């Protein structure tokens, strides 16, 4: 790790000494740092998914896996549907359970425990559940989803999505009258440099 520290120190000196406009210096410094680092250096346990359709949502998204319930995201789902639960909080069996069959359920935080949401999504036939924060302005804080001491054991993977990303996905699907997005989950990002990451423009990881 010593060489990384030396590189960062040299880059910081370059950042201070180069006779460039502030915004140009900042961009140069940021890109140089990220070029030296892969995602794994910063995010070891989180997982990622990518949206293939609709194209306006075509970015790579980060998820925080449930801490102590559900199953790991070990099975790779390619071209699977991502469907909004109705009602979105998914505290009871969704009205659109047939649409959730064989899909990934996108649900909202609030109204009941994370475990309850996973249980109801599984009962509807979903193969995984993504819980988006109910704060649509949250673009940085990941919540640790933990069990609720009810001894219920959902058998599907569960992950937490930032509220800003969840809001953008849900709004786009509704505005475009789309029943589902098409995604790949999980995607392997362990060796991808930060500067090559296709992240949503509204999120800075």
Report on this model:
With 205 residues, this protein is an alpha/beta fold. It folds into two domains: 2-37; 47-185, Glucose Oxidase, domain 1, CATH 3.50.30. It has five helices and seven strands; from the N terminus they run ααβββαβαββαβ. Strands 1-2-6-5-4-3-7 form a seven-stranded mixed barrel. α1 runs antiparallel to α2 (22-35). The chain is globular and about 45 Å long. It starts with a helix and ends in a 20-residue tail after the last strand. The relative contact order is 0.21. Residues 1-36 have low confidence and may be disordered.
What attributes does this structure have?
20% strand; 5 helices; seven-stranded mixed barrel; 205 residues; single chain; Glucose Oxidase, domain 1; disordered N terminus; alpha/beta; 7 strands
